[in-house]
Amino acid sequence: MTSVDRLLEQYATAYRSGDTDPWPYLDQVEGDERVELEQMMELFLLKVEPREWDPLAFSKSSAAGFVDQLVSKLLVPEQGWRELLPSMRLGMKMKREAVFAELARALDAKGKEEEVKVADYYNDMEQGNLDPRGVSDRVLEALSGIYGTTVDVLRRVGEATPPPKAGGAVFARSEDRDLEPAGSIEAQPRRAFSRITGKPDRIDMLFVDFHRSEPGR
Amino acid sequence: MLGCTGNGEVSDRPPKWRHLGGSLKFGAKSEPELTHLSDDDLVAYMVKARDTGHDDELRTATGLLVWSRHPQQLGLVRQKVRNEQDAEDITQIVMEQALKARFDGKHAGQFFSMLNVIRKRRVADYFERQRREPDSAGPLPDGSDPLTGISDGDDFAAGVDLEMVSEAVLGEFSVRDRMVIRHRVDGHPAKRVAEMVAASGVEGSDGLTSINCDTIYSRFRKRLRAVLESEKRSQG
Q: Most CB atoms within 10 A, among A124, B36, B38, B168?
């Protein structure tokens, strides 16, 4: 038996008893033998059976703390809807256009103008340009129906992330003179950039809480 | 035409997606049931648990996955990273990034392969960072895209896929010899391997000795070494 064989056997025994440190074995050989032992150890590790589930040992291990942190990050992705919505859409193998259509139907959008508006608002949600706190339960109910999720999940993820900064896309688009304080010298609407051409319509109201967003400020 | 980017015509057809994902049905599984799932099925279960608000089920499945893969991944990292705490940190980052990559739905492929790709890249990052900043402490590669950032010129990162090469070499051996080799790679002594192979009843296992096992294993290692060297040479 070569040194490599013997050391691999010793490492395998140690590994199965819970010691993953390879260095006591690697340090015993040099040159080609060292390279070969590294390769055989790597092969052993790639092929080794996953550790058997032991709930008691797990609960006492440092892995439990790591799992708690990990689950928090999985439950609420760092970038909120910007991460969650595309992941759900991709998970369903749906193109954006299909979501637009489903969402427009669920929200009872009438005519091309409203359908386009729903599509634009959904894009804003996916791109993190819409304040989640202003999106109505009706929209979230429709999306939960499309994605097989719940309003609570969507709400939790949306509200855990900071709203977009004022001056972002949705604020630029939602300027409206009807919402400006009377006599404001800034009350000229920039219609070319707005999807709201007058008083906010029912689709706007579904996606934006105008009292909260204070557009135009 | 619907929207400025799309071509999804809204029609009166029934919602075709609702039967796919629109159901809130989530089949919660017990711990023993979860232990029988493959990594990929377990991750799919975790995504579904997240999507349907089953936080406890997500926690249980995540615990099970981390518990099962952690020692293996830590062992693989420690082969390259001598510092125990750095190796532990890198292992946690690797597991987190592999899971996030699956949760974001953009990265296909097997979870185990993803772990291996990400591990190689994070270890390469670690050494690259040590080279650039010798006084820096800890791995800190978190935040980078899990599937980018490989360091060119790092032998480990750019290296040959050992598992793939070993499978190709194994294919050159008979069924009996493959069994011998797999048991030896698994760290079992030659005498024990001879008994295990004999007990399997595989063709040619009668009269197999520990010396035979060592000879077969030695041939495998020699051949593996030759193929690995050849692959490395061809990669420049």
A: A124
